Amino acid sequence: MKISVLGCGRWGSFITWYLSSQGFEVLEWGRENSPSYNVLKETGRNEYVELNKTVRLSTSLKEAVEFGEIIIISIKSQGLRGLGEQLISLVADKKPIVLCMKGLEEETGKRLTEIMIECGFSKDLLAVWVGPGHIQEFTQGKPNCMVIDGYNANLVKNLANTFKSNLIRFYYGEDIVGSEIGAASKNVMGIAAGVLDGGGFKSLKGALMARGAREVSRLIKAMGGNELSAYGICHLGDYETTLFSEFSNNRRFGEELYKGVKFSKLAEGVSTAKAMVVLSKKYHVELPITQAVYNIVYENHDPLAELLSLFGRRNVAEFV
């Protein structure tokens, strides 16, 4: 089977590495003059993986669309709408598209599959690949569990069975709303966890986990999803890799924000916090932790004081 991977950042390059190691023919696409693409083109590797020599690299989106029987997208979430509009003009809507991304459109709060549907793609050919795992551990042979979810149960099962291996066990998702919201929002909780780490309040991360999952469950339910999805692999099941791991970009962003150090890598929780505030207002759901992260990132509130104020709320029932 031939697979096209659109995106050559951290996860895009890992997916290419993973699928090519499983015997698939893979073409990885990157934008012309992209530093990430140029590194792979010149050296065949980056700081995370070394690509199989059989992998094809291309800056032609048309070539990528024509090559793959399945198209996987792994780019910054805020760039998805623009890419989707390009892909629809290339008739890419005839093939299954898998979004291996975690985020929301920050101005609208739209889920990523919603964006693709608005671009003209059939929901029956759309799926998401989400869940816990760090590249640094996968490449050391340490296994983990992930989820494929979508609108078409047969597509979900076929993709999960196609991509599974001893390294990654895939579960069949049954709640696309819960999977997308849960996967995106855990990055916001990761920023909060990093602030607690930086301020020396690691023990409060237990309360953050419990309250964070409850907060997200309310939002998922209000949006028509299954509130129990917040306690599954895509959200609570991803907390260890996001709230505790040294490899978590969002946790590190929060920690370095507290320390006043500029973080140079992508932390999707930043834009997701903004999007979730939009959803909070739209669905009339209180999201205290999300609002606190938004206040820290966008309103320049004192990071530690903002979070500690949550744990001192008199009416705990409102928060829990």
Quaternary state of this entry equals single chain
Number of helices: 15
> Which structural class fits the helix and strand makeup?
alpha/beta
User: What letter string, H or E per element, gives the SSE order?
Assistant: EHEHEHEHEHEHEHEHHHHHHHH
Main pleated sheet? 8 strands, mixed
DSSP strand count: 8
Helix percentage: 40-55%
Strand content: 5-15%
Distance between the ends: 47 Å
pLDDT averaged residue by residue: 95
Major beta sheet, strand line-up: 3-2-1-4-5-6-7-8
Low-confidence stretches: none
The best one-word shape is globular
Question: What can you tell me about this protein's structure?
Answer:
The protein has an 8-stranded mixed beta sheet, sandwiched between helices. 50% of the residues lie in helices and 12% in strands. The chain has 320 residues and is of the alpha/beta class. Strand 2, helix 2 (35-43) and strand 3 form a beta-alpha-beta unit. Helix 8 crosses helix 12.
Which short descriptors sum up this protein?
320 residues, alpha/beta, eight-stranded mixed beta sheet, 15 helices, 8 strands
Question: How are the SSEs placed, and which strands pair?
Answer:
Elements: E1 2-6, H1 10-21, E2 25-29, H2 35-43, E3 56-58, H3 61-67, E4 70-73, H4 80-89, E5 97-99, H5 112-119, E6 126-130, H6 135-138, E7 144-150, H7 153-163, E8 168-172, H8 176-199, H9 205-222, H10 239-244, H11 249-259, H12 269-283, H13 288-298, H14 303-311, H15 316-319
Parallel strand pairs: 1-2, 1-4, 2-3, 4-5, 5-6, 7-8
Antiparallel strand pairs: 6-7
